[in-house]
Amino acid sequence: MDLTDRRRFLRVKIEPPIRAAVGSTRVYVEDASIGGIRVIHQAPLPDPGEVCRVELPSDVGPISLDCEVVRTVLERALFHSGMQIVAAADRQSAERLRTFYSAKLPQA
User: Fold this and answer.
1) Maximum separation of any 2 CA atoms in the chain, in Å
2) pLDDT surpasses 70 at 3
3) Beta-strand (E) ranges in the chain?
4) pTM of the shown model
């Protein structure tokens, strides 16, 4: 891991990216950790510093996360947003996030 990387949790690449939603805006989750996600989207999301709910379907059930938008950059006509997970919307979402994340970790 790069020593300048400020992340506290290992990010895992999601292949292929998973379709999710922020309100009525379609997003694709391209990597995730227990502490945050990175999404690709065509329509703008809330501004950095604002919190929004991300609805993510998964094999273990729907996951609802309240996320703070940390940064958004425009790259080749698509937005890429880094989001810090503030809280899972409920206990089931928290458990499902841990299960989903653990299943995506590289196996030793």
Assistant:
1) 39
2) no
3) 12-22, 25-32, 36-41, 51-56, 63-75, 78-88
4) 0.86
